[in-house]
Amino acid sequence: QVQLVESGGGLVQPGGSLRLSCTASGRIFSINDMGWYRHAPGKERELVAIISRGGAITSADSVKGRFTISRDNAKDTISLQMSSLKPEDTAVYYCNAIINYSNHWGQGTQVTVSP
After folding, report:
1. In the Cβ-directed half-sphere of 19, how many Cα atoms lie within 13 Å?
2. 3 state DSSP class of 54
3. Residues 66-77: tens digit of each pLDDT
4. Model confidence at 80, in pLDDT bands (50, 70, 90)?
5. Contacts of 13 (CB under 8 A, 6+ apart)
6. pLDDT of residue 9
7. Phi and psi of 26, rounded to 5°?
8. Pick from 30, 82, 84, 91: CA 20 to 30 A from residue 63's CA?
9. Under a CB-based contact definition with an 8 Å cutoff, are residues 47 and 60 in contact?
10. SS3 of 12, please?
11. Are 87 and 114 in contact (CB under 8 A)?
């Protein structure tokens, strides 16, 4: 059984920072792309950033210059460093990974940006 476990969400004021982490565990033979998506109330789920095993990054225009995704292949872990947070970044953030050629999702972690 493969699992993605996220941590690091919470409440932060506008302009603040948070760091999310996601670790894959279980019977893993291969992990390809890993990334973060978010789902805000009343909106569709959207890509935040993804990173390939080799370190190639794709990110949403809305987070460029503010969010940084990183990956530790030895630990099957990705992180998302979020800075200069805005109220519109409020959402449930989901970790996603292609593990053993199948798509997997974490349980989600709430990020709330509010004064």
Report:
1. 7
2. coil
3. 999 999 999 999
4. very high
5. 113, 114, 115
6. 93
7. 115, -160
8. 30
9. yes
10. strand
11. yes
